[in-house]
Amino acid sequence: MSMKPIHLPQPPSPTAATGIPDIFQSGLVRRAVVVGNGVPSPENHCVGLLRALGISQNYLFYRVTRPKGGIHDWLQWLPLSLHQKLHYLISFFRAFSSTSHFLPLPSHNDFSAILEADANHIVNFARQTYEKEGPLLVVASRRDTVAVASSIKRLAPDLVFVVQIQHPRLHLNRFDMVITPHHDYYPLTSEAQKQVPKFLRRWITPREPPDSHVVLTLGALHQIDFASLRSAAITWHDVFAHVPRPLLVVNVGGPTKNCRYGVDLAKQLATSLLSVLGSCGSVRISFSERTPQKVSNIIVKELGNNPKVYIWDGQEPNPHMGHLAWADAFVVTADSVSMISEACSTGKPVYIMGAEHCRWKFTEFHKSLRERGVVRPFTGSEDISENWCYPPLNDTADAAKRVHEALAARGWRLKI
């Protein structure tokens, strides 16, 4: 009597090019961990990369947090671990000292009530689930996450692939990949060397050119791509479909240590916007959380009553995605690499306001964009109806491709 062969079912897998069921494949990365620092922009870098990798939901989010408020706002330059220890000491003395009113510490900064990103916890999670779920992709961004991400790599090098976004300044070999803007290497240029006294140069990082596992981008990573813009265009259709065109969107950030400005820039921006109103159908202005009140007040005073101008009041829903999808052109203040990068990913005209107030690596960033024809300075003499274009910045997708290649070299790949 002949026996019929038994065939195990092999459900199709979008990542299984060989036709082998996922359950039999080794090195298949099914999940990820994001290590953030509580700041929206760097956390957006991480989520944007995961989105470009096709991991839009299957990830866990951990966060390192610094104490904030009172004296802590002056201690942000300290290493995170030292800052947290100092927080506990201040809290201890605050409880027993009659002079505690000199150290205002909001109650919501009680670290016992906050779930901290813990390297040992994440490593134990990777070990316990490795046999069933495979390797773990870890994505972190900014200085405060460096210690956690590097510890995860050190404790479980064979179970994780660690990507650090933005230059960690030291010890690049503690990560599987570093993704950072090209302008982070500005300190190595001859222009930067001239600005730093010779005896200080050894303390300025980075000190070495990028090695093979450093991926350089022009701008910041983010979540903006064709699919997200198309979805936003549909979502915001009723708000923007009948807005007079061309629509100019103005994104105002706030001064930083490398882009210092105040009411002078606000007055200049308001004057320039009034000069281009004739070539605009409408203007929509948004302020960021970093925008000083004195800056926004001037712009509101000068433009708030103009029938062509709408100023977002900061109330939800946030129209940012609608602006990116429906704008015909952008004006962005020079201080924000993230806001500029998002606008430049649309391929639409982007004008930069206040680049002359910036220094150090920001000058390199703006210079690179201008040389590629991606941005132009905003002077107030522009014709907003002029539709010039360029190849959109595609940094996030390019970085995701490099992650795929690095995983493949290790014998791993992502389950999309």
UniProtKB/TrEMBL annotation:
Pfam annotation, one family: Mito_fiss_Elm1
SUPFAM superfamilies registered for this protein in UniProt: UDP-Glycosyltransferase/glycogen phosphorylase
GO cellular component: mitochondrial outer membrane
InterPro entries (UniProt xref): Elm1-like
Domain of life where this protein originates: Eukaryota
An annotated GO BP: mitochondrial fission
Name listed for the protein in its UniProt record: Mitochondrial fission protein ELM1
Species annotation: Canavalia gladiata (Sword bean)
